[in-house]
Amino acid sequence: MINSYVIDRRLNGKNKSAVNRRRFLERYRKHIKKAVNEAVNKRSITDMEHGESISIPQEDIHEPTIGHGQGGTRTIVNPGNKEFNTGDRIRKPQGGAGQGQGGGDASNTGEGMDDFTFTITQDEFLEFLFEDLELPNLVRKDLKEMSDFVYRHAGFTNQGVPNRINIVRSMRNAHARRIALSGKSRRRVKELKGLIEDEMAKDEALRDGRALADWQEELQRLETKIKRLPFIDDFDLRYNRNEKVPVPSNAAVMFCLMDVSGSMTQNTKDMAKRFFLLLYMFLRRNYEKIEVVFIRHHTSAKEVDEEEFFYSRETGGTIVSSALRMMSDIVKDRYPPNAWNIYAAQASDGDNWNDDSPQCRELLANSIMPLVQYYSYIEITPRDHQALWYAYEQVRKEYPDSFAMEQIIDPSDIYPVFRQLFQRKSA
After folding, report:
1. Which of 69, 76, 310, 406 has the most crowded Cβ, counting Cβ within 10 A?
2. Closest C-alpha to 256, from 134, 389, 377, 393
3. pLDDT of 235-267, one tens digit each?
4. pLDDT, tens only, 208-239
5. Domain endpoint, select from 195, 221, 241
6. Model pTM greater than 0.85?
7. 374-380 and 403-408: which strand pairing?
8. What is the separation of C-alpha 377 from the centre of its chain, rounded to a whole number of angstroms?
9. Which of 241, 259, 276 is the last residue of a domain?
10. Which tens digit of pLDDT belongs to each residue from 28-59?
11. Where are the beta strands (DSSP E) in 12-122?
């Protein structure tokens, strides 16, 4: 049996083999995954304009070599030989005499080989980060806005610029015009040619010379008339007509809600930031337009920018329902559910006024969950759960497909928890 291999040598936009690049990325997947996971901790939540630089240690790109072992039979020619005759058996040189090439990592000048470094693209970065994940309840809503336009063919017009002339359609019109204008004359020409042919077939004595001359004169006049018709006229010209058509853009909004009371340390906020970053990047894989709304809260809620959201400190107690109520109001005012795909992520250390937790459950179940595609709650604390967690558990029972909650204790839990929340569901 003969195996056949087809090698795709088509080039990508940068004149490099896309197939070879894909094979290379698969080979060093472990190093790339490690670099991608480390990069998550360094980036801003909206910093999505580049890929990532990957370094592979020199020893991991070492290529295996094939050498000859001891023994075996081979034939060689030794020029200038004075010691051996034909048929003599020569023992191979023994190894370990210091004649090898060595690893090549160091020299007496102190120079060595650097790690191999290359860059993956933005799409490759996201592919490695979110492989085996899916976006729950991905719903394509009505178009939010028509911000992009493309020009598409929309028929023909009899006016336009020369570079848009449609030659085929113009020649077709010209041919049809000539047929229409000369149809009667062409039928008469055919008739006259038949009469003349019949008359010429008669004996010369029986021919009607006068009638024959009239027919020939009329035939010449009609043929001249047909030839005077222009091959193409301005009336025949047709131009391609292009129409500006809006391109739909699927829109999504991501609500980030976080407790910023005195119990939330900067370390806790940093862990929340990494989770929000992962969710934002994940949404970018599925939607062309993403807006982010930051809502922080202690005893009252406030919509802020990213810098204030993650790095400001507040003191006092915690009333979570204030943030949920503000989110509900913003959705009603700015993000109608029939036009936006709405996602929300909430981070907290679990502290809340006990009397407020039932209100949070009611707000979520009745006002927010019917409007959103997915709501994820992470509780960043090593302590036992409090009233807020148990109130949210009741919401999860009511909305098992669109509400998820997990606990995070240290930074190493962030990505596993994210994968748990967004893991690909089996069919």
Report:
1. 310
2. 377
3. 889 999 888 776 555 678 889 898 888 777 777
4. 777 888 888 888 888 888 888 888 888 889 99
5. 241
6. no
7. parallel
8. 28
9. 241
10. 777 777 776 666 555 554 554 456 666 666 55
11. 52-56, 116-120
The H-or-E segment that residue 360 falls in is: helix 357-363
Query: What's the CA gap between 381 and 315, in Å, rounded?
Result: 18
Using alpha carbons, select from 358, 284, 282, 286 the residue that is nearest to residue 319: 358
Give the pLDDT score at 226. Answer: 86
Structure tokens at 4: 């056949």
Single-letter residue type at 212: L
Tokens encoding 294: 């930051």
Q: What is the token pair recorded at 372? A: 């959103």
Specify whether the CB–CB gap between 220 and 310 falls below 8 A: no
Starting at the earlier edge strand, list the strands of the sheet with 289-297. Answer: 301-304, 289-297, 251-259, 341-348, 374-380, 403-408
Token pair listed for 284: 């970018």
On the 0-12 / 13-18 / 19+ scale of CB atoms within 10 A, 33 is middle
Paired with 151 in beta bridges are 244
Q: Which two tokens stand for residue 112?
A: 């060595």
Overall domain count for the chain: 3
Q: Which two tokens stand for residue 136?
A: 């729950």
The CA distance from 22 to 37, in Å, is 20
